[in-house]
Write a structure and sequence with these properties.
Helix content is 73%, strand content 0%. By secondary structure, it is an all-alpha fold.
């Protein structure tokens, strides 16, 4: 029986491609950890290749440069956040519950992804020099803003929400409450003298943010108790 050379070639190509993707993925994950810990300037190629159990030359082969790798790390982080946000997109026909769901997602995502926060902080120190090079930079956050826009429109149609709201403004309000609390958890804990990561503290902040945002968007917010 004669073996098909085409099938062997395809199988061989598939194995090589899988190995290449695994190597690239290992480098990307290692770079995320190293850059999150040391920042862009302190995250050396040597540290990354060592953690990835790879070689410096593989980083240059797959990403071109240290900067190219950092941009790829940012791209991967934003892509994963967008994909997660798409999966949890709430039903806008119930606007109050939907907006609460969006708020919870943002609060939990920022809190549970400290590497994401660390890399955002690092990139802001560089004034967005690398994030401006993302291929899809115009698309990131668009999913979140569009979800909020649909929720606000539904709420306005039902007479529950104000009609003069900007989805962008509400998005920034929610994101800022999530980002500030999570990214400043240690300094705030020292200044306030309390553990902001305790379950009770997190639940209190979540309830406070939900109440605050709803008071902003509602046509007739409840009176303060």
């Amino acid at each position: 029986m004669v073996r098909s050379p085409v099938k062997n070639t395809v199988r061989g190509t598939g194995v090589r491609e899988a190995a290449a993707q695994e190597t690239r993925g290992n480098i990307l994950r290692a770079a995320t950890k190293v850059f999150a810990r040391y920042g862009y300037d302190g995250g050396s190629v040597d540290k990354i290749s060592s953690l990835a159990k790879s070689h410096d030359r593989m980083i240059y082969y797959y990403f071109g440069s240290k900067e190219g790798l950092f941009v790829a790390v940012l791209e991967d982080l934003y892509r994963r956040m967008d994909e997660t946000e798409i999966k949890v997109a709430p039903d806008p026909s119930k606007p109050v519950e939907a907006l609460e769901s969006v708020i919870r997602f943002k609060l939990h995502y920022y809190w549970n992804n400290p590497d994401f926060l660390a890399l955002l902080n690092s990139e802001n120190l560089h004034r967005g020099r690398h994030v401006s090079k993302l291929e899809r930079k115009g698309e990131y956050s668009a999913v979140a803003v569009q979800n909020i826009a649909r929720i606000l429109a539904s709420g306005a149609e039902q007479g529950l929400f104000r009609t003069d709201l900007s989805a962008r403004d509400v998005f920034l309000l929610i994101a800022s409450t999530a980002y500030f609390y999570a990214s400043n958890r240690y300094t705030l804990a020292a200044f306030l003298g309390e553990d902001l990561g305790a379950d009770e503290a997190l639940q209190h902040w979540e309830a406070f943010v939900i109440d605050s945002v709803l008071r902003v968007v509602r046509t007739n917010p409840p009176a303060a108790s």
